[in-house]
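Molecular record:
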Amino acid sequence: MRVQRQATVQAMAVQAAVTPRPDDESCWRQIVARDGDADGRFVYAVTSTGIYCRPSCPSRKPKRDNIRFYDLPEAAEQAGFRACKRCRPEQAAAADPRMAAVRRACRRIEQAEQPAPDLETLAAGAGLSPYHFQRLFKQLVGVTPKQYAEARRQARLRHHLRKGEAVGSALYGAGYGSSSRLYEKAGEYLGMTPAVYRKGGEGIVLGYAMAETSFGLLYVATTGRGLCAVGLADDAVEALADLAAEFSKATRVPDQQGLAPALAAILAHLDGRSPHLDLPLDIRATAFQHQVWEALRAIPRGETRSYSEIAAALGRPEAVRAVARACATNPAALVIPCHRAVRQDGTLAGYRWGIDRKRRLLAHERKI
């Protein structure tokens, strides 16, 4: 009876209504004040460095526009940020019992032998029904427990491959039961086969081409399977620097003739002669990024959607910041029209290829 009573108390504590994380501006004020009482209630990530920190972190404060807020360290890591080595935000105790329950589940997923614990097991550990636990987990982390387990497995695979392990050893060390399962999905999150990824992309030949537009120099690159980069630059030097930064160990060769159809399709779209762009892509993305990018491609030319509207359309109204992050990491300008995503009040947020270009693109699309 005592054990049952304790389990009931735990469930009530997890389900109890608690004070939600403060709004973004309140969080920012706590960061400026280095408020230690805010530790464990949220973390902040810096887009310019790829690092996330506790609110009380003593490091130099970044620009406000570069800040993103997350309820949990795991949510920041799921979005691609790394923990600060100075303040160790991943070690902060969760201030909310709901957060603590989800973080315990994350640890179980990360530390478990394959296969990862199923939803029922995780929910029982939190004292919740599977339905309520999955809903809570997705709200705080941004993905379901199953998606989180797959992301951790992919991270283990990348870690083993970067260390130079043989593909077979890395595959089973990461928890994949068969090579066919791995190679089926490799292109989705590596962008190349595991053997090539192990070499940092070395040996991959990327063809690229460029064309002048009224919005700057358009450049495209392909792996042969599809476009892996589409961008806008001021000149060829900047365009080549962008490709070198993105694909540092790949061999980049000009292929103006081979990529002429792709350039022509994008130029026709810009000129209003082609309402839709349907070019083959070969880009790395998480499942959520793919969902956001498909939602962006569904926005009619001349129209915009707010990040919150996109999140709601995906059935994830709480994932506004994750949607903005997916827009910011879009590797294919124009083909995936992230310039059509705006703030809730209609003002323009950042754009990878320049806010002025975003403004001019939207104005141009409204005219044609």
About this structure: The chain has four domains: 19-91, 149-198, 205-271, 287-367. Residues 1-19, 186-190 have pLDDT under 50 and may be disordered.
